[in-house]
Write a structure and sequence with these properties.
With 421 residues, the protein is α/β, with parallel strands linked by helices. The protein has two domains: 254 residues, Type I PLP-dependent aspartate aminotransferase-like (Major domain) (Aspartate Aminotransferase, domain 2); 129 residues, Alpha-Beta Complex (Aspartate Aminotransferase, domain 1). The chain has 16 helices and 17 strands. Helix 4 crosses helix 10, helix 6 runs parallel beside helix 7 and helix 12 packs parallel to helix 15. It binds pyridoxal-5'-phosphate. The site of pyridoxal-5'-phosphate (PLP) has 15 residues, from helix 4. It is found in: Cytoplasm.
């Protein structure tokens, strides 16, 4: 047998024994797994259902149409494109559809909680477009909408981005739209992180206010790794778009064209099948219970961390994640991430707003509850987890303590299946 299978088994063991607190990760169902490991991976299907550039696409047409229809039902939207291979590619398609290189955009600063694709200098978005950004207030850790408006009116970006990778509060999409309308900007929401909570109405809906919405399918939505584009209510009607030949196209056609042939070739129909299965699972009432538990766990973990003297940015969470500012504990994000890994607790170092350390060191860690909730953990386990993290942070260089915490982590996760739906 190929050594790769030994490595896969090793990784399965690691995932089973450990506490997964990376906010962007989750455990998919066996059915999602099965779809991704199926013969659908053999099929080329450039184009869209009914309009392919290859023969033999009748079956994958049905698969992709099911994925689209389930996503429409789940989010209550009229347009969905399930082909983006990743969240970043869904986002790249938005840039291609809406802007010309050199146009100005406005996103949340990466160091304040934004994503690379929202204008970071090392990403195509920051390389090919002019970037202005908004951030959070120093005292509260909350988005500073006044500063956002001030910068928007002064800089007049053509597109504004509402979205984050490390912000624990809900977004006021109506406020974003008010500002975008003042300057005639397109408003794009990237709900990659909270999509599962948005789908179940636990957070504000971006669709009423934003022109276009992207997401990943693998975080709180608990599907396979991938991306997706959806349209808000008034984008199709209000935005004509001139092609290079001078034709006016509907926005849905422009978005489809931006994904294929704009930035991608053949779609990953095995992953699209996995997306369809995950959307079916998310439509089920059980997913509502799951999403509510994710949030309840995040709130319980944040409280338990605060009780142990940790500083949580903005003082709590409305979603599945939180940012821990470690500066009052005298440790940095890098060493904390490393020590936690030795105790079989996985999370990622993360910059905190107004951080004085580099992205390689950082002053914080980001914690999320989507994955541990899938493993069946509840509010009362969150106090235990905060205690374990606290023990690690207080004994960051003491290997004996780290080994003893690891034992406790392994005991806690013993007998808790990776996910079978
Ligand atoms: N958008 C946001 C807000 C994200 O947090 C992420 C990933 O963490 C992405 C996009 C990119 O997703 P992917 O890693 O699938 O490219």
């Amino acid at each position: 047998m190929d050594i790769i299978f030994d490595l896969i088994e090793k990784e399965r063991q690691r995932q089973s024994h450990g506490l997964e607190l990376i906010a962007s990760e989750n455990f998919v169902s066996d059915n999602v797994m099965k779809a991704m490991g199926s013969v659908l991976t053999n099929k080329y299907a450039e184009g869209y259902p009914g309009k392919r550039y290859y023969g033999g696409c009748e079956v994958v047409d049905e698969v992709e149409t099911l994925a689209i229809n389930r996503a429409k039902e789940l989010f209550g939207v009229d347009y969905v494109n399930v082909q983006p291979h990743s969240g970043s590619q869904a986002n790249a398609a938005i840039y291609l559809a809406v802007l010309k290189p050199g146009d100005k955009i406005m996103g949340m600063d990466l160091s304040m909680g934004g994503h690379l694709t929202h204008g970071s200098a090392v990403n195509f978005s920051g390389i090919q477009y002019e970037v202005v950004s908004y951030g959070v207030e120093r005292e509260t850790g909350l988005i500073d909408y006044n500063q956002m408006r001030e910068v928007a009116l002064r800089e007049r970006p053509k597109m504004m981005i509402a979205g984050f990778s490390a912000y624990s509060r809900d977004l006021d999409y109506a406020k974003y739209r008010e500002i975008a309308d003042e300057i005639g900007a397109t408003l794009w929401a990237d709900i990659a992180h909270p999509a599962g909570l948005v789908a179940k109405g636990l957070l504000n809906s971006p669709f009423e206010h934003c022109h276009v919405v992207t997401t990943t399918t693998h975080k709180t939505l608990r599907g396979p790794r991938g991306g997706m584009i959806m349209m808000g209510k008034d984008f199709e009607n209000t935005y004509g778009h001139k092609t290079p030949k001078g034709e006016i196209k509907m926005m849905s056609q422009v978005l489809d064209g931006a994904v294929f042939p704009g930035i991608q070739g053949g779609p990953l129909e095995h992953v699209i099948a996995g997306k369809a299965i995950a959307f079916g699972e998310a439509l089920d009432v059980q997913f509502e219970t799951y999403a509510k538990q994710v949030r309840a766990n995040a709130q319980a973990l944040s409280k338990a961390m605060i009780n142990r003297g940790f500083d949580i940015v903005s003082g709590g969470t409305d979603n599945h994640l939180m940012l821990v500012d470690l500066r009052n504990k005298g440790v940095n994000g890098k060493e904390t991430e490393k020590a936690l890994v030795l105790a079989d607790i996985t999370c990622n170092k993360n910059m905190v707003p107004f951080d004085d350390k580099s992205p390689f060191t950082t002053s914080g860690i980001r914690l999320g509850t989507a994955a541990i909730t899938t493993r069946g953990l509840k509010e009362n386990d969150m106090d235990t987890i905060a205690g374990l993290i606290s023990e690690v942070v207080d004994n960051i260089k003491n290997e004996e303590v780290l080994v003893s915490v690891r034992k406790k982590v392994n005991e806690l996760m013993e007998g808790k299946a990776l996910f079978n739906y």
